[in-house]
Amino acid sequence: MSWSEAALVSAACWTISGLGYGVFAALDEPQLSPAPLIGLGLAQWFFAYHRCWRAAVAAFLAGFVVLFGLVDVLRPDLGRYVADALATGAASTVALTVFTLVDRASGRRHGAAARPW
Q1: Which of these, 4, 66, 78, 98, could form a disulfide with 91 (CB 3.0-4.6 Å)?
Q2: Is residue 85 part of a domain?
Q3: pLDDT in tens, 65-85
Q4: Residue 95 is assigned to a structural domain of this protein
């Protein structure tokens, strides 16, 4: 996986996070979150283009820790919507960075099609 692809996917995640939380804040819907939508989008991207399970597990764990760690730290000072948007965007960026590092370290050919089942 290339770093430019990781940056493009990360930018898409930040856009969805910012727009989603902006819309939910305008509608005053604190129980809704675009985080599941981002997670489903990343899962679809993974299955369509990059089936490196080692990288996926590492990325999931890193993203999970960052998301819930940042939410707890940021919410008291920034409020729910801003803290959740920042935590979701940061978690997706960390997850994609970890995914790229592990994928590249595993020695897979970049741009190669995913292995069939």
Answers
A1: 66
A2: yes
A3: 999 999 999 999 998 899 999
A4: yes
